[in-house]
Predict the structure of Arc-like DNA binding dprotein.
Amino acid sequence: MPEQENRTLNDKFMLRLPDGMRDRIKAAADANNRSMNSEIVATLEDKYPRPFSEDEDFSMAIAWAVSCDPKRAAGRFAEEYRLVLQYIREKFDLDLAGHDIEKEYFSDPRFNVPVSNLAKWMEFSFGPWVRQLTKAL
């Protein structure tokens, strides 16, 4: 496929920038060794992350459950642990109460989740679910 034809398959969006913003984007792009387009896309990806797939959602939930398991965390995070187990039960129809989640699931390499991804998941998926749950109470 010719280069020009391939480029038309990408989503294009014309944008008017306020005075001075182009220069700020250019400076940030130069500092990060990337094009202005890549800088803008990276900024938008950070602000508007794509939703997690069901597999990613489950992996993050398991990683969070293991991270905040009160047995591992010296009794702390009991409420967070209860909430993530409820999330897993509701979202995936899987009751893990009483299971050794770390032994049963976390040895799977899919659950070796970077902390940055876990933080994004908590903000993007789990956080809104908790807020919705607490509004319903």
Remarks:
- The chain is about 60% helix and 0% strand.
- The CA atoms of residues 70 and 79 lie 9 Å apart.
- Residues 3-47 form a domain with the Arc Repressor Mutant fold (CATH 1.10.1220).
